[in-house]
UniProtKB/TrEMBL annotation:
Belongs to the short-chain dehydrogenases/reductases (SDR) family. GO terms for molecular function: oxidoreductase activity. It holds the Pfam family adh_short_C2. This is (+)-neomenthol dehydrogenase. InterPro entries: NAD(P)-bd_dom_sf, SDR_fam. Keywords: NADP, Oxidoreductase. It comes from Quercus lobata. It comes from the Eukaryota. One of its GO terms (cellular component) is membrane.
Amino acid sequence: MWFGYKYAVVTGANKAIGLETVRQLASQVFHQLDVLDPVSIDSLANFIQEKLGRLDILVNNAGASGVVVDEEGLKALNIDPSSWLSGQAYKLIELHGVIKPNYEKAEECLNTNYHGVRRVTEALLPLLQLSPAGARIVNVSSLRSELKVKG
Ligand SMILES: NC(=O)c1ccc[n+]([C@@H]2O[C@H](COP(=O)([O-])OP(=O)(O)OC[C@H]3O[C@@H](n4cnc5c(N)ncnc54)[C@H](OP(=O)(O)O)[C@@H]3O)[C@@H](O)[C@H]2O)c1
């Protein structure tokens, strides 16, 4: 699937899904990035321009959940991983109040997951357009934001 691609950017790659994505892509180039900071984004774009000259893959993985998590309370519920997909886990979480939204977290979520992705993508687009293989942009999302047409 990724044959012909050489250079990739994965945002939010210091841990979790982003770190594993980078490990599998075997990236050897690291540059700090805050997707909320236009100066930081420009710095990344300039770095890629100077070091690589183009970009083949952009994985928009950096994300904010928009909620405050009571980590200990969540662990104590001992939720079966499969129940996340079925939606059962959300009922348990709501019942026990271990995940709570608030205004600040919602604002951070919107800024990171929408404006951040948009800014990073727009800044890196000219470099992606130079990919001879035809660049890929992967937006990591959530089941909760899945678009469905209700019939
Ligand atoms: N894990 C899940 O079950 C799940 C479910 C649905 C969707 N997702 C989505 O999958 C993606 C990764 O999830 P995850 O669980 O691996 O996330 P995570 O453990 O919460 O890690 C989020 C990553 O995003 C980075 N990040 C946050 N704000 C940033 C900013 N302003 N600039 C640059 N990086 C920033 C974090 O860096 P710092 O550590 O420096 O803050 C971290 O590397 C997210 O987009 C998330 O919404 C995950």
